[in-house]
Write a sequence for this structure.
């Protein structure tokens, strides 16, 4: 009897062990082609779908025993048209199948469905190691889906969203599981955002991997084994895209096109914003506004955190703190301020609260597996939470913004706590159920997209009730593709020099991960910076797309004037520089919207053929022609930094520098290391206290000499409304060509939009010859000499904004 029991135990243990084993595709029996799609079937029932999305983008989907689930993605819109494939060839070989496009060669092994991808010259770009494999998870019933690939020689990894770590990810491991990480530090993981996209650079050739799986996912960049890179998820499907460059910038462009860039924001959203937890009562909020205007610090937006609400109930106003919000918002608007309010997902359980009653009556809130409503504590106390994965709930949520936006005049909304975060255990229990747009799911699958879908619903409401103005929204948590709905910030950082360093890295990393409209809490959310740290942070953030000071009320004041007159003057100077650079910033954003180019570009993106750039992370470019490198150490009066190959001018002095080397950039507290690319045309506005304060009657064009040729672009559509979608915009291209004795600027204009300015003031930098006059469209025009804001004596000329050609000699 004892022997029989022991034998049964062995059998049970053996079955349990088999349940934990890894499974692999079998031998490929057949391949069926349908247009650009290929379906490979293995002898053990595993199927592999390879879709040729473009000649540079291939999609891989694996199904195990049960076949493919419905093809649904929150990241990649289903209605995207697939481009025509000009060349596509399919061949069966003795031991593999081969798919060839104009740019790539993909082989699928008949032995185990593993793949290899090469460029058309035969250079190996990617090769499976174990390839696809999976493990059954008894606790959840899901497959843990895994992919491992060989590490090619000299490989480097970038991307993955907001990870607070070195720019180059090689040797690291990360997890995507959106988490409210208060006071995170370098290396903290996971964080708020879930962007499962990374870029790989090897042998100076770049490609990317986008793993479109919303379950908790992990990425190992040759950390566990130096010769293997892998990614896996705790459920769902092995569904990933291979994206070929060959440049890093092209990889990000292709990914951003796949997941879709945002619409253009209103121009004012690129101005300076001021926020605090919390400004109240109304007299305090108005006092902050007066503080900016009295001190002549440019500012476009002021924020209200949770204390503006009635008992933290979303979509309400505190009758004590803000008795007449419509009047307040209107009067602030008359002085150029846009009011932004916070909205969290938690809806207070209160039978007398209309939003709660509507949600309850219509069954809009998330439920547990056995039926009870999901309850969790956040700022209002016990709350229920909308299921934003339901279209009808998103429509209801959008409609709730009518009061704040259309009636009260609020101009933007920021979504917080939407990882989702609750106080009990950090987030929802695993058994909470979601509609998932008709593809029923647990919290395990929906967690990473909850914040994105909240931002989606919020954006729809703000857009609907802001019309004909453009909407503005911000989110803390998101998933791949979330850039379509919102801007973002990097979360609850700390007033420290390390976090200033992190802000630089995180904003660059998000930008190359398709999400460019980003910024950090200037000065730090937690604790209070000293004046030096605050000014250095403002100097960096002036070159980030989203530019906002935000802090916790627990730690003192953090307005630009909070640190004394010396630091106020310095902070004001950088904010003023941002406002002058708005046409350049807006043009760069337009390039992002049109072409998918990241607004912030790490050094490697500027010259991936220069191996000196691969491990550097401080330097970055804003758009095509500005190179920035922040000071991130106390007491420093400058820094060594690397200039990419080419010719550059130091912004503050016009000193010429040759790239491809480290240079010393002198930067006392009134400067940030900032270089302008030779040949660039940098557009600037006259100084304003807020966007639209003055009519721009003259656009200033700073023209930098180059012995050679360089092209710049300036885009304009008025910065508000939707006329640009009907062609009411203008794109001005300037080609600068320099010789040892002359400089020529040729302008071409596309579009019929008529800007407010009729003239340009061209200011010339770095002319290496004595210039006395300009020839404008063949007619002589005198050059004048003027002293710039930086004290530089420069030649300039005022011309019609419709000029065709100018030569200076």
């Amino acid at each position: 009897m004892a022997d029989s029991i022991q034998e049964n135990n062995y059998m049970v243990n053996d079955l349990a062990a088999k349940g934990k084993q890894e499974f692999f595709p079998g031998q490929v029996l057949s391949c069926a082609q349908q247009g650009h799609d290929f379906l490979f079937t293995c002898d053990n029932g595993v199927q592999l779908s390879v879709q040729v999305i473009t000649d540079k983008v291939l999609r891989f989907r694996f199904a195990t025993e049960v076949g493919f689930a419905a093809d649904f993605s929150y990241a990649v819109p289903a209605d995207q048209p697939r481009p025509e494939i000009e060349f596509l060839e399919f061949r069966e070989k003795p031991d593999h199948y081969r798919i060839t496009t104009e740019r790539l060669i993909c082989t699928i092994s008949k032995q185990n469905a593993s793949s290899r991808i090469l460029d058309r010259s035969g250079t190996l770009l990617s090769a499976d190691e174990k390839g696809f494999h999976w493990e059954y998870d008894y606790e959840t019933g899901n497959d843990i889906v895994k992919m491992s690939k060989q590490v090619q020689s000299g490989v480097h990894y970038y991307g993955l969203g907001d990870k607070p770590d070195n720019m180059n990810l090689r040797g690291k491991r990360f997890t995507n599981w959106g988490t409210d990480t208060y006071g995170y530090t370098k290396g903290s993981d996971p964080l708020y955002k879930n962007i499962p996209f990374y870029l790989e650079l090897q042998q100076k050739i770049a490609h990317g991997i986008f793993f479109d799986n919303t379950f908790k996912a992990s990425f190992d960049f040759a950390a566990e084994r130096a010769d293997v890179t892998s990614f896996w998820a705790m459920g769902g499907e092995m569904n990933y895209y291979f994206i070929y460059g060959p440049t890093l910038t092209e990889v990000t462009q292709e990914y951003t096109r796949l997941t879709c860039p945002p619409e253009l924001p209103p121009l004012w959203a690129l101005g300076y914003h001021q926020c605090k937890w919390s400004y109240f009562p109304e007299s305090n909020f108005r006092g902050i506004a007066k503080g900016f205007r009295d001190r002549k610090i440019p500012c476009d937006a002021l924020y209200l955190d949770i204390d503006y609400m009635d008992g933290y109930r979303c979509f309400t106003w505190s009758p004590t703190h803000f008795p007449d919000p419509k009047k307040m918002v209107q009067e602030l608007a008359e002085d150029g301020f846009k009011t932004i309010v916070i909205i969290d997902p938690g809806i207070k359980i209160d039978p007398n609260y209309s939003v709660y009653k509507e949600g309850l009556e219509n069954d809009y809130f998330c439920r547990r597996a056995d039926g009870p409503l999901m309850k969790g504590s956040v700022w209002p106390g016990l709350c229920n939470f909308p299921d934003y994965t339901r279209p009808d709930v998103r429509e209801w949520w959008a409609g709730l913004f009518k009061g704040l936006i259309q009636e009260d005049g609020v101009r933007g909304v920021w979504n917080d706590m939407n990882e989702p975060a609750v106080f009990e255990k950090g987030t929802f229990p695993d058994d909470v159920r979601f509609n998932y747009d008709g593809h029923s799911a647990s919290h395990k699958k929906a967690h990473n997209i909850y914040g994105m879908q909240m931002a989606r619903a919020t954006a729809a409401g703000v857009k609907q009730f802001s019309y004909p103005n453009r909407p503005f929204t911000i989110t803390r948590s998101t998933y791949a593709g979330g850039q379509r709905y919102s801007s973002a910030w990097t979360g609850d950082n700390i007033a420290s020099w390390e976090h200033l360093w992190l802000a630089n890295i995180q904003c660059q990393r998000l930008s190359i991960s398709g999400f460019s409209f980003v910024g950090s809490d200037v000065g730090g959310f937690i604790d209070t910076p000293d004046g030096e740290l605050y000014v250095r942070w403002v100097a960096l953030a002036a070159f980030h797309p989203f530019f906002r000071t935000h802090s916790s009320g627990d730690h003192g004041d953090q307005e630009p004037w909070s640190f004394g007159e010396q630091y106020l003057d310095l902070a004001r100077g950088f904010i003023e520089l941002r406002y002058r650079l708005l046409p350049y910033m807006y043009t760069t954003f337009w390039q992002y919207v049109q072409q998918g180019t990241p607004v912030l570009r790490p050094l490697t993106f500027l010259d991936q053929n220069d191996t000196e750039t691969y491990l550097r992370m401080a330097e970055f470019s804003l758009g095509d022609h500005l190179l920035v490198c922040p000071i991130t150490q106390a007491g420093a009066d400058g820094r060594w930094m690397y200039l990419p190959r080419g010719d550059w001018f130091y912004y503050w002095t016009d000193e010429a520098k040759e790239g491809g080397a480290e240079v010393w950039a002198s930067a006392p507290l009134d400067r940030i290391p900032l270089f302008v690319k030779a040949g660039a045309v940098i557009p600037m506005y006259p100084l304003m206290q807020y966007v639209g304060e003055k009519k721009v009657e003259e656009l200033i064009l700073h023209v930098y000499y180059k012995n050679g040729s360089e092209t710049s672009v300036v885009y304009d559509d008025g910065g508000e409304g939707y006329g640009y979608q009907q062609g009411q915009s203008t794109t001005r291209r300037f080609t600068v060509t320099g010789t040892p004795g002359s400089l020529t600027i040729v302008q071409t204009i596309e579009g019929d939009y008529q800007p407010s300015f009729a003239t340009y003031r061209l200011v010339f930098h770095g002319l290496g010859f004595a210039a006395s006059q300009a020839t404008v469209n063949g007619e002589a025009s005198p050059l004048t000499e003027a002293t710039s804001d930086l004290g530089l004596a420069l030649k300039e000329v005022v011309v019609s904004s419709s000029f065709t050609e100018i030569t200076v000699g």
Q: What stands out?
A: The first helix runs from residue 2 to 19. The first strand starts at residue 22 and ends at 23. The chain is about 20% helix and 30% strand. The chain has a mean pLDDT of 96.
